[in-house]
Amino acid sequence: MSGKRISLFVKLATLAFICFCAVSLIQISVQYNGMVGEQNELREKIDDCNDSIEQLSDQLARPFDDEYVKSVAREKLNYRMPDEIIFYNDLQR
User: Fold this and answer.
1) What CA–CA distance (Å, rounded) separates 40 from 47?
2) How far is the C-alpha of 44 from the C-alpha of 41, rounded, in Å?
3) Phi/psi class of residue 78: alpha, beta or left (left: φ > 0; alpha: ψ in -120 to 50)?
4) How far apart are CA 44 and CA 59, in angstroms?
């Protein structure tokens, strides 16, 4: 009788261990997939930042001439030339 109990206990312990391993494997797989997705998102952010750095480097490399001053005045300060006519549209789409 004790041999059958030990055999049953070994079978139950083995089954419990296999279930534990299966659940752990599924959890690790889910975590891995999540980390791969996060890694891809971070790589995209890095690429965007590198593009931004390139654009800013190009801006720094440009000469500080009249065209540059005009573009900064237009874009950053909203200045316009005296002979320009500005039209505003208040219609919302």
Assistant:
1) 11
2) 5
3) left
4) 23
Q: How far is the C-alpha of 63 from the C-alpha of 69, rounded, in Å?
A: 10
Q: Where are the chain's structural domains?
A: 2-62
Q: What is the pLDDT of residue 91?
A: 76
Identify the DSSP state of 30. H
Which residues make Cβ contacts (< 8 Å) with residue 73, sequence separation at least 6?
A: 79
Half-sphere CA count of 31, side-chain side, radius 13 A: 6
pLDDT tens sequence across 53-83: 999 898 788 777 788 788 888 888 877 878 8
Spatial separation of the C-alpha atoms in residues 8 and 90, rounded to whole Å: 81
Output the average pLDDT for the chain: 87
- Extract the tokens encoding 13: 């312990």
